[in-house]
Amino acid sequence: MKRLLPVLGALVLVGAVVAVVVWQRPEAPPPSAPSGDVVLQYANGSQLWRTGEPETPLVRQIVRELGVKAALSPDQLRRSGGAVVVTTIDPKAQSGATTVIREKAAAQPASLRYSITAVDPANGAVRAYAPGNDPAVDHAGGVLKEPGQVFHPFNVVAALQNGQTLDSAYDGRSPRTFPGQVTVHDKANCGERCTVRDALLKSGNVAMFDLVTNVVGIKRVVTAARQAGVPESVDIDGTKTSLLVGEGGGPPNAAVSLGVGEARMRPLDLAAAYATFAAEGTQHDAHFVTHVTDVHGATLYRAVPEGKPAFDQDPARSKDIANQITDVLRQDTVCGIGQAPAAACRHGEYGAVPDQVSHAWMVAYTPQISVAVFVGSDRPATPAVDAGGAVIAGSGLPNDLWLAFKDKLNQW
Hints:
The chain is 31% helix and 20% strand. The protein is α+β, with helices and mostly antiparallel strands. Residues 1-28 and 30-34 have low confidence and may be disordered.
């Protein structure tokens, strides 16, 4: 498929073409399986896993979804004679993601951890789920991490919903102390009149904090994030954990506007939420399973992805809000300005101590794919540094992984 993808914009083509050729191809007949076996398939019908093989983090996510959405367990399926579970995972995207992590990790400190998660904006299907190089921890859907500046688009959605514009201006001078003796710093140099557009493009923490605390309000920001697709709760190692809440289940504090503290979420959640921007304001729940059949081919479960306007009941208004965000994120030079259609991206870092980043992000999307890349230290209190000893930045190693993954897609 290389002839289809001459440039980055071809990521759009890979979604459009592969969605027809691979991801939405007619369902293959279920393979013959020994009685009692449960077989997991990739989206193209090839085998991903079967009974008796080690369970990977990806397999555990699929099994968990079967229990929640289909009320089916592997034991139940085995007792009934076996089953075939067709997943959303594309084998080439999955192979590309795992290969990129393996190749990049080989040249980096052993203390770094990674994940690459890719979601199809058209229907919420998880196309690639590479949880990293540590088999003991799922760094795609089994950890909660602060998104840092990657959270900023949700602030802007809330602002646009409530009468602000991209040209509305706020005091972005750094450092700035707010009521309650909260001092916010950034390196944006956004100035006394920092527009919402510039605050989003330049990672202007001070202007964002001003916007949220003095104008929009944190409840509206949390609502915007949920509208994009950040779930109310997730399962982490068998424990239900609420997202974007404060003590006692109340609203989080204003630090959430900076993507810290109670803003923690999974890389999978970021990929799914940004897929809503990629889908021009239409939100689909992320999912791993397409359908389940018994050994005779009878359907036991079928996912029915339903899209809905995310940011306004009026689809046109929701689309407008999402596209305003995308138009700004496309202007980031890291994303590849000049390549048409360009990817939109947001990168950021988090560290409990200034200049000691513990993890960093690159989230990039086109209309056909939304990709979240995570890179972090295996010890939260330890700075994440690359092979050259430099502190990890979202525009550095995470961006390298995104570009390498994009190149793998281009080779199809």
